[in-house]
């Protein structure tokens, strides 16, 4: 059975490696008994989904031994903690949010309405349990998390008509649907080709080449993930895919678009040349190509870097991720973390919110990470508020919690090396002060407008798909204008989503009410004058600045969704990068960990990012900076973090358990398959999806 499973991937790995593979297969056969990890015996009836408990110093029992402490409960932290718990470890998750877990997957309520904060939709690969990401999520929640497939189109890119979005003229829409070829045809039919210097057949061929490049990037990241799990002596099996990934990652989105659409480069051309041709400065002169390039920068909002600066790797993996459609959670997105961490608790672990980790404790003799120092988040906020008002009060109690095996930071490498470790530590010094050893930088943040709307979604005819407003088809110029003066210029891109139309439980939970979320880019530098001010005490200038940003977004909402009017918007509130610092512990309000530029994949940076290991023994990274940004990328980063903690043999045991679980899902979905066929298909999808 196992031999049959590997036949489809021999071309990927190289036929010259058959001898090594046979040896490994014998080891796997001998190790099959390892697949019965504690998590495999857990049933749905033993899992009782419940919200996390609040941290208080008296909950720290010195007699309780934690194997691993995970800092952060976002997609990456939850995945890491869950897999370690299922592998048999006793896990403690510490979340700094005052009252809820989930990081960017959490949702919140105000004014009798609810909004998600970071998971606004995801691809079908996360919702489909027969695909790798979906199977992992099914494994981590034991199938308790349910999803709804979004209909076509799942995304629409909208441009205002010339004249700045005149409400008297209808905006122009371009639809993204399931399937790369179908999306190409959908976009081409809405382009005015009369002004193009290229025929529709040439444009179609170049769009297809663009999609092929995106799929190649997806294959490269699969190889990158496997390289973080496999022992180093097997990395040569993945060398070709990794070299292709790193080469394409060194190119910007703008330059790859120029090479493909203007010069007619193919995938083979871009892999053979020493350097990608550089796009000329300024706007694309061909109006059809300019519009097509702009449309195909979607989904730029999911990695938040303008085309001139963005690595093509980030764009390619994001586009490939959504190529087969999108899904949304049944119920609030908060349920993902609740169900995932409930598995941790059922296996003897715990999760505490309101727990701000102030420092990671290192052993004085060995330098190993052995625990953390924690304070109450809400007490810290109250203490800062009192200090701001001039009172002299002692800070909250600092509590030490020890870990027997490891500490995992799932809040990003910038928090790790700027806030959680001793400033004089050589590794910290290398990260902070040695540009010859690091050229990465934190990602930008976002502006969030959360709206409550009178009336139900069906009556208001609100769209189920996401609307992406693009202010201009010269994307880089639009970003430059906005970043230079955000109150005078509209954002270059705005996400507009209505969770009330996607979640089938919404009408029962919030009858007669709809919600909307708008998201645009936001720079940390705009908000530094208020970074040390407590929440709700940042003054009138801050509120006036927020008001101007909000008005831009409200105008865009009413133009892009013309059936809405201002009097239907009952309530709105604006979040900024400062909100991301307060509620998500983001470094400088960044939404995606490391900024997705070509430097992210440069040789000198590979020890800092896309890597779950650190130079400090016993200390690991999970989440976006362990692999990739966004919810799915962070989840994979959590899986890699768990693998790094477990080591090679522990990871093998966990993989065997997951393989059995995955094959069972495929058998349930396809009962006509033989058991060995299900195992082969599960393995094939694991190494190639």
Automatic annotation (TrEMBL):
Record field: transmembrane: 12-31
Signal sequence annotation: none
UniProt keyword annotations, A-Z: FAD, Flavoprotein, Membrane, NAD, NADP, Oxidoreductase, Signal, Transmembrane, Transmembrane helix
Xref: Pfam families: NAD_binding_8
Xref: InterPro entries: FAD/NAD-bd_sf, Retinol_saturase
EC number: 1.3.99.23
Molecular functions (GO terms): all-trans-retinol 13,14-reductase activity
Domain of life, per lineage: Eukaryota
Similarity-based family: Belongs to the carotenoid/retinoid oxidoreductase family. CrtISO subfamily.
Protein name: All-trans-retinol 13,14-reductase
Species whose genome carries this gene: Fistulifera solaris (Oleaginous diatom)
């Amino acid at each position: 059975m196992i031999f049959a499973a590997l036949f489809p991937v021999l071309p990927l790995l190289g036929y010259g490696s058959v001898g090594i593979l046979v040896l490994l297969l014998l080891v796997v056969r001998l190790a099959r008994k390892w697949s019965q990890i504690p998590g495999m015996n857990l049933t749905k009836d033993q899992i009782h989904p419940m919200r996390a408990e609040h941290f208080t110093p008296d909950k720290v029992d010195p007699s309780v031994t934690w194997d691993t402490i995970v800092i952060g409960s976002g997609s990456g932290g939850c995945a890491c903690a869950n897999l370690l718990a299922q592998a048999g470890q006793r896990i403690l998750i510490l979340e700094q949010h005052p009252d809820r877990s989930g990081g960017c997957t959490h949702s919140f309520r105000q004014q009798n309405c609810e909004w998600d904060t970071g998971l606004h939709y995801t691809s079908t690969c996360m919702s489909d349990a027969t695909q790798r990401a979906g199977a992992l999520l099914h494994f981590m929640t034991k199938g308790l998390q349910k999803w709804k497939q979004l209909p076509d189109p799942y995304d629409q890119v909208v441009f205002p008509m010339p004249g700045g979005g005149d409400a008297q003229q209808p905006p122009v829409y371009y639809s993204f649907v399931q399937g790369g070829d179908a999306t190409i045809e959908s976009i081409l039919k809405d382009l005015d080709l009369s002004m193009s210097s290229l025929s529709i057949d040439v444009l179609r061929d170049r769009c297809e080449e663009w999609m092929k490049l995106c799929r190649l990037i997806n294959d490269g990241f699969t190889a990158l993930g496997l390289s973080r799990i496999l022992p180093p002596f097997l990395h040569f099996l993945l060398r070709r895919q990794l070299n292709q990934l790193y080469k394409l990652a060194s190119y910007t989105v703008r330059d790859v678009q120029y090479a493909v659409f203007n010069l007619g480069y193919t995938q083979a051309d871009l892999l053979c040349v020493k350097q990608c041709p550089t796009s000329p400065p300024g706007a694309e002169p061909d109006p059809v190509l300019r519009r097509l390039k702009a449309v195909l920068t979607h989904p730029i909002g999911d990695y938040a870097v303008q085309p001139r600066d963005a690595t093509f790797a980030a764009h390619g993996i994001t586009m490939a991720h959504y190529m087969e459609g999108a899904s949304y959670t049944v119920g609030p997105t908060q349920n993902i973390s609740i169900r995932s961490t409930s598995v941790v608790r059922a296996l003897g672990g715990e999760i505490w919110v309101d727990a701000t980790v102030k420092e990671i404790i290192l052993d004085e003799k060995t330098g190993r990470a052995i625990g953390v120092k924690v304070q109450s988040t809400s007490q810290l906020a109250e203490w800062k508020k009192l200090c701001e008002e001039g009172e002299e009060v002692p800070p909250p109690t600092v509590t030490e919690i020890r870990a027997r095996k490891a500490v995992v930071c799932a809040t990003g490498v910038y928090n790790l090396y700027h806030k959680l470790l001793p400033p004089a530590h050589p590794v910290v010094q290398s990260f902070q002060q040695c540009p010859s050893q690091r050229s990465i930088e934190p990602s930008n943040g976002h502006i969030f407008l959360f709206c409550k709307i009178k009336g139900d979604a069906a009556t208001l005819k609100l769209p189920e798909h996401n609307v992406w407003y693009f202010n201009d088809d010269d994307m880089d110029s639009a970003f430059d204008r906005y970043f230079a003066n955000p109150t005078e210029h509209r954002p270059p891109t705005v996400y507009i989503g209505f969770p009330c139309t996607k979640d089938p439980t919404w009408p029962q939970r919030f009858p007669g009410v709809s919600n909307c979320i708008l998201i645009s880019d936001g720079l940390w530098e705009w908000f530094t004058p208020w970074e040390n001010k407590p929440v709700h005490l940042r003054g009138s200038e801050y509120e006036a600045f927020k008001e101007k940003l909000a008005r831009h977004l409200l105008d865009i909402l009413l133009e892009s969704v013309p059936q809405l009017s201002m009097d239907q918007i009952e309530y709105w509130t604006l979040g900024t990068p400062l909100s991301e610092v307060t509620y998500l512990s983001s470094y400088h309000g960044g939404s995606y960990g490391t900024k997705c530029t070509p430097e992210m994949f440069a040789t000198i940076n590979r020890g800092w990012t896309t890597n779950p290991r650190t130079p400090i023994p016993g200390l690991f990274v999970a989440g976006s900076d362990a692999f990739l940004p966004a919810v799915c990328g962070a989840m994979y980063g959590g899986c890699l973090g768990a693998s790094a903690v477990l080591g090679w043999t522990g990871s093998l045991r966990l993989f065997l358990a997951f393989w059995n679980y995955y094959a069972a899902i495929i058998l349930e979905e396809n009962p006509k398959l033989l058991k060995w066929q299900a195992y082969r298909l599960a393995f094939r999808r694991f190494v190639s999806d």
